[in-house]
User: Fold this.
Amino acid sequence: MAKEPLNAAAERAGLRVVDDPDDASLALVDLTAPGCGPAVVELLTSLNGPHLTLIAVVSPEPRGFAAVDTLRPADIITHQGLPHELTWRLQRAAERHREREEQARSQTDLALLLELTADYAESSDVEALLHGVTRRLAEQLDIARATLVMVGGGVDEGVIVAASDDPGMKDLRIDLARYPEIREVVRTGKPVVMQEAATHPLLGDLERQAVAARGIHAIAALPLPIRGQVRGVLLLRAAGRRRAFSTREIDFLTTVAHATAVALRSASVLQSVQTARLAAEEKAASFKPYQLFFAHVSEGVAILDDEAAVLSLNPSGASMLDTTAGEARGKHLNQITQPVDDGVLMELVTSASRGEARMGVDVVVRTPAGRCLTLSMSAAPLRDEDAATILSFRDVTHARKLEDELRNTKDFLERLIDSSVDAIIAADLKGRIILFNKGAEAMCGYTAQEAQEKLNALQLYPPGEAQRVMAQLRGPDMGGKGRLSLTRQELMHRSGERVPVNMTASIVYEGGRESFTVGIFTDLRDRVQLERKLYDVETRLEESEKNAVIVALAGTAAHELNQPLTSVMGYAELLKRKLKEEDFAYRPVDIIYREAERMAEIVRKIGKITRLELKSYVGAKQILDLDKASSHEE
Assistant:
């Protein structure tokens, strides 16, 4: 088939077409091409042939499919489906190839790990064993070199105990200042992997130059933990075709490093077990006088050697840890206590071995019976010449549980009090503030810290009110002795403003004696302001109703008075017309007419009244100001 469609399909599938079969993972063979047989045979018999995943292009007829029986390809495609299916087929074949390769590598790793484990269990020649480990790892991973380096208590010097490329290399001391990757593993206790070693920031300039000069592409350093400390490092360097370490390989190497550490520890134990047993028995005998004394102590007591191994354990301690003195003797302290955090326990013991006494350190342990206990431990040096430590401990599991419950209850109540919108204030009998919640801060203008440090409860009330409240609390009339039912009160704000509140209070007694008082205050400022507004509205409404009554009365009076006044004025005018000015009756009739006119004007003003306007009259009396009450209509 043409190369251009193949390149395009491979690019869409995330693959790359190569010319050398040794660099390939997948192979696409066109069985429809004339004379393809020799080329296919040459491909399958090449060095990389057994590892290739095949995709075969066949003709869409029975003999075309029969031609692939001997090849057993991973997938088959015809020319008709080639333009549409090739990308998809390539992707699926690549996935299956990766899965097959991963399974093959995992099986190889597992086989090597089983071989190494068997060697660790059977071999007594530690030096030959370690060289064999490094050699096999280098061969299987195709790396330049694998090295085992042991380190001491510090991080200044290490010892190469085995190297994959030199069976005779052992006990070679090296300066760890030139190996920052080893120092980092010892410091952190975790693997260090440098995929681009020549540019990695952990290395200095000189180390980068040395790495580049040797053609090293990647470095992996794995810790060998022995008794909780990194006592060695498995160091691997990749060069040549090997460019990097995969995550699977690092996991495999970590497992190998742990197995190697266990083997080294077991070899060390086998060589020293007899000597250690004799030494432990001698030390245990020397502590016999202490054992007789500690046998009757209710607390657990253990005597430890300089490596934190148990020399003696009293009956109380053995019972507490669900073990016996005989079972505990010679075992490491961590082994019989199984602490949740062994760092805390070992720091306690280490301090004692340095001559520092430590008291009351809580350590959570697990017993063989499955119990989880909290022990309060104290450690002190017993004798300087033997560097022995005496460890005492008592079971505080129940006490710590109660403390936690009380602490949680206290935290809950504090949150509950602080979340209250009402002010809650407590004070002792001298007026010192002991509780001042957020509501009190908002109501009084002081912070809780200011109130507790500088404020007296007397200052929160108007002068004399605090004493009156205490008298009510102690009396029987306001809710009973020691209680004050809901009452109206005022508190003093920091600014001097008087804050109206509803208040309830009580006295807290301890053993029948007054201990402190607590009050709950509800801010009434918004309610008082609302009441004031309602009063103003009601007042204006009453005034409006009065005005309406007056206006209605004035209108009625004006209407009723107009008719008789009109008659009086009409008859008076008729009489005036029939009389002459010199007649005796003319003047009285004229007066009647003019006064009737004045009354008519007054009636008109009464008819125009729309509001109530008063003016002073004789004495303290007030009467309607007719002119003002009707003037707005003018």
Remarks:
- The CA atoms of residues 109 and 252 lie 7 Å apart.
